[in-house]
Each structure stands twice: as structure tokens, then as C-alpha cells.
Amino acid sequence: MLAVTDLRKHFFPGTPNERIALDGIGFDLAKGAFCVVIGSNGAGKSTLLNAIAGKFPLDGGSIAIDGEDVTREPAWKRARLVARVFQDPMIGTAAGMTVEENLLLAELRSEPHRLRWGLTAERRARYRTELSLLGLGLENRLGDNIDALSGGQRQAVSLIMAVLGEPKLLLLDEHTAALDPVTAERVLAATMRVVQERKLTTLMVTHNMQHAIDCGDTLLMLDAGRVLLLAKGEEKAGLGINDLIARFRHKEDRILLAG
Ligand SMILES: Nc1ncnc2c1ncn2[C@@H]1O[C@H](COP(=O)(O)OP(=O)(O)O)[C@@H](O)[C@H]1O
Ligand SMILES: [Mg+2]
After folding, report:
1. Ligand 1: which residue has its CA nearest to atom 27?
2. Is the pLDDT of residue 208 over 60?
3. When comparing pLDDT for 253 and 46, which is higher?
4. Which of 20, 40, 47, 256 to mutate to test the pocket of ligand 1 (most atoms within 8 A of CB)?
């Protein structure tokens, strides 16, 4: 479903501020794979997701989604294949609009050729079903202003907005990191339900080592723009938190993560 080959990205090349963000990253994911992405700050995790979403031109390498080479496709064209949820709950949703208006917006964005039918009873029923799957009581809040929702609820709505367009690939960049621990667990559980229900191929960046162990069938660990570890299936299942922590290069990271 996703084939990434020798990705390279430098920021500010040839200047004293040069940063090698991606230094030859390659891996592939089968359809329906759930890949957890970990690594120290600055390891290149967000840059990798940005590269897959087409946010900037690459310096080298190629990206294929569902057999389609998208390397030179701009982000707006790739949006039909790739959906994202970011860390900040304010980014994914449109302020000043209701929950159902946000969902409609997301749905129409992915079907630009369709007429705007508006919020039909059929759509409302479908949105209610989608939201109920989250298990957060959001199915009763379709008409509420999105600003009245908590950060966790907004992230959950962002998640449904992301999957409404039936993307081939879902990218989650620390989407629970800005939430309090209890809410983070709830949103993560909701995420796992939505992803399993839709059999979505997913990349999820996390700083939470327990989540990295508990979630997914594939683990990708980055360090300085390179793949430090790619574990799939049984190899991934056999990993413990200590195995992950031991691989972090910087002592500060190990102390932080162990805590
Ligand atoms: N837009 C950008 N401009 C300049 N440097 C960037 C940009 N995005 C990322 N970087 C640099 O690329 C490296 C990887 O960053 P990032 O992918 O955000 O790391 P992570 O998400 O793993 O913490 C860092 O050195 C960072 O400073
Ligand atoms: Mg990041």
C-alpha cells in the first residue's frame, strides 16, 4: 500500500543552518498495516509524514501509494489518498462551525465534483453512526458548535473528518500528545476502533512508548533521518518498552521515556 524508497530531504542546504531531515529512508507497508513511528525530537518523524503527504518537493527518493507513484504530485492532489490528523486540536477542525458542518466540509472536500446537497437526513444519520463508533458521546452533538467541544472531542471529530473521504493512508502525527492522559487514552482507543473498522493503512507518530508497544503490527524507529529499526509482525510483538528505550541514542531521551 505504501512504498517509500531512499527519501532525502535537506532544509537550508549549503548554509550554516543546513539540516538533514531525511537521510535515505526506505520501507514499505502492506494494505491495512498499522505502523507506529518513534524517535527522538528532530529524528525526522514529522518530516517523513509531511513528505508522504506531499508538503514539499523531495531532494531524492520516491513514494508510491497503492501502486501509484505520487512522488511529484502536489499535496492537494494527494489529499484524495492521504488523510492527516495533527497534534493541535485547533488545526483539524474549522472554528465557528458546528460538528456536522465540519463533517460535511470534510466530506465535500474529498468529492469536489459532486454537487453540494447539504446536510441531508441521510448524511446526518451517517455522521451519527461514525461518531458513535468513537464511544465519546459525540453522536448527540452534531448541531453543537465545534468550539464547545473539548480538545479530545475535537481530535476525535478531526479523526472522523480525516477518514470520511475514505483515504488509502491515514497519517497521525502525535495526535494525542496535546491531551491529558485520560483523554489521550480515550482518543487512542477510538482511533484503534475507527482504523480497524475501516481496515485503514496507518502511520502513527507517538512519544508514548507504551502506545508504541500496544498499538499496531509494525514499528518504525527513526534516528537522525534514518531508519534505526523496522519491526513487523512477530518481531514487533516481541518487543518490550526496554528494547525501545535502549535504542534511543541520547541519554536524556532514555531518562525521559523511562519516566
Ligand atoms: N520546515 C522546516 N524548516 C527547516 N528545518 C526543518 C523543517 N522541518 C523540520 N526541520 C528540521 O528537520 C529535522 C527533523 O525534524 P522533524 O521531522 O520535525 O522531527 P521530529 O518530528 O522527529 O521531531 C530537525 O532538525 C528539524 O529542525
Ligand atoms: Mg514531530
Report:
1. 42
2. yes
3. 46
4. 47
Q: For the CA atoms of 43, 46, 47, 52, what is the dihedral angle to 10 degrees? A: 130
Would you tell me which CATH number, out of the four given (3.40.50.1370, 3.20.20.80, 3.40.50.300, 3.30.413.10), belongs to the domain 2-81+168-258?
3.40.50.300
Close Cβ partners of 167 (under 8 Å, ≥ 6 residues apart):
80, 81, 82, 83, 110, 200
- pLDDT at site 252: 64
Residue 5 has pLDDT above 60, yes or no: yes
Q: For residue 2, with 0-12 CB atoms within 10 Å meaning exposed, 13-18 middle and 19 or more buried, which class applies?
A: buried
Residue type at position 158: S
Amino acid symbol at 2: L
User: Ligand 1 pocket, 38 CB below 6 A?
Assistant: no
User: Distance between CA 163 and CA 100 in Å, rounded?
Assistant: 15
Please indicate whether residue 206, judged by its CB atom, sits closer than 6 Å to ligand 1: no
SS3 199: coil
- What are the residue ranges of helices labelled H in the chain? 45-53, 75-78, 89-92, 99-109, 121-132, 151-164, 181-198, 209-214, 233-237, 241-247, 251-258
